[in-house]
Inverse folding.
């Protein structure tokens, strides 16, 4: 005949002892081993002087889930028991509930999760006066662990492609840490789908069917996606801060050198040489004018040579003499200006910078050097603005 275990005695000045006693009596009358076991696991724990209402609700919920889960496990329905036992353990830890959870996980083929839960139970220190139920649970946990360890399979995953930090690997939809690549990963026996992905690459997939205790390796290779378009590189205004910055996001084809064209302003488009053409046109026109005045000055000089022997001219030829001198001066100055214009156009041609739109965008980020010509009284020169 079944006999109820000895009723636990709990001293409490706030009436909780009487409550526990009443619940124990109700549970014992049901003559259900799962009920009594759950009571021992959850109800008969040391009671704190002040028990918050939410803690009491969680304890009651954990008790109900544990009772249902243990009943299902005792009936051999581990598939249904796992969900209830896992929820009970999450709400309120109890070594015996965790032990039965691990046993059911092993029974349903989840060897890795089950053995880890059993190890947690066995790593817990044994109390000074352990109950018979706890000692039995530890013995069952050790026996189940010893029987399951040889059945654990091992899968080694190797992925060829970009660096491991840029790769995402999943097994049966669950992410795998990059630290577990190229090493034996404990796995449950059965079929596994391994997938590897990375930005800018085509997804690689492999399947592996593991037998109990078997070790197998799978290798995947990531191929560049020909249809992948890398994101646009950020502009200087977006924070690059200077021309010539390369942007690389790790994907194939990514990265661009903004200083490839060189010159006074880095640009990816054709240089703007309009200034050179204008300077050449101005210089050519000045040379032509200088040549015209030079011809006038030479003609006047030739005329005066016949009329002014020994460079001594009569007063009647002063007007012709002054005109010849003026034409010579103008010719000299315009020749100098024309030469400066042609030289400036040559400088601008070989140092042409970006177009006006690009130059405006970079004006705040880069210093500019603008060559210029100047003409003064009797002087001609080249300068630059910074």
């Amino acid at each position: 005949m079944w006999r109820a275990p000895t009723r636990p005695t709990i001293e409490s000045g706030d009436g909780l002892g009487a409550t526990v006693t009443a619940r124990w009596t109700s549970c014992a009358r049901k003559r259900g081993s799962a009920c009594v076991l759950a009571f021992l696991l959850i109800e008969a724990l040391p009671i704190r002087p002040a028990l918050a209402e939410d803690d009491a609700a969680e304890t009651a919920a954990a008790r109900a889930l544990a009772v249902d889960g243990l009943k299902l496990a005792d009936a051999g329905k581990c598939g249904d028991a796992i969900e209830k036992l896992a929820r009970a353990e999450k709400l309120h830890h109890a070594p015996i509930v965790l032990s039965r959870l691990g046993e059911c996980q092993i029974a349903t083929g989840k060897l890795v999760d089950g053995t880890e839960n059993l190890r947690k139970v066995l790593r817990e220190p044994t109390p000074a006066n352990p109950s018979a139920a706890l000692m039995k649970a530890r013995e069952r946990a050790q026996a189940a662990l010893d029987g399951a360890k040889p059945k654990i399979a091992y899968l080694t995953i190797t992925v060829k492609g970009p660096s491991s930090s840029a790769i995402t690997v999943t097994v049966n939809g669950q992410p795998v840490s990059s630290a577990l690549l190229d090493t034996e990963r404990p796995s449950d026996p059965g079929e596994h789908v391994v997938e590897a992905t990375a930005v800018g690459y085509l997804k690689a997939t492999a399947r592996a069917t593991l037998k109990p205790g078997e070790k197998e390796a799978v290798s995947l290779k990531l191929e560049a996606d020909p249809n992948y378009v890398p994101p646009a590189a950020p502009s200087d205004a977006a924070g690059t801060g200077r021309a010539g910055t390369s942007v690389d996001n790790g994907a194939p084809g990514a990265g661009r050198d903004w200083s490839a064209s060189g010159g006074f302003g880095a640009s990816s488009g054709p240089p703007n040489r309009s200034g050179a053409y204008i300077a050449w046109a101005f210089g050519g026109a000045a040379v032509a004018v200088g040549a015209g005045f030079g011809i006038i000055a030479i003609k006047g000089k030739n005329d005066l040579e016949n009329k002014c022997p020994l460079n001594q001219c009569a007063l009647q030829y002063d007007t012709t003499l002054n005109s010849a001198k003026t034409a010579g001066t103008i010719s000299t100055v315009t020749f100098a200006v024309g030469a400066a214009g042609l030289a400036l156009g040559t400088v601008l041609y070989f140092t042409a910078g970006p177009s006006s739109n690009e130059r405006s965008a970079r004006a705040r980020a880069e210093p500019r050097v603008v060559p210029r010509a100047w003409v003064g009284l009797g002087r001609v020169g080249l300068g630059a603005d910074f």
Summary: Residues 15 and 42 are 18 Å apart (CA to CA). The mean pLDDT is 76. Residues 274-307 form the longest helix (34 residues). The two ends are 107 Å apart (CA to CA).
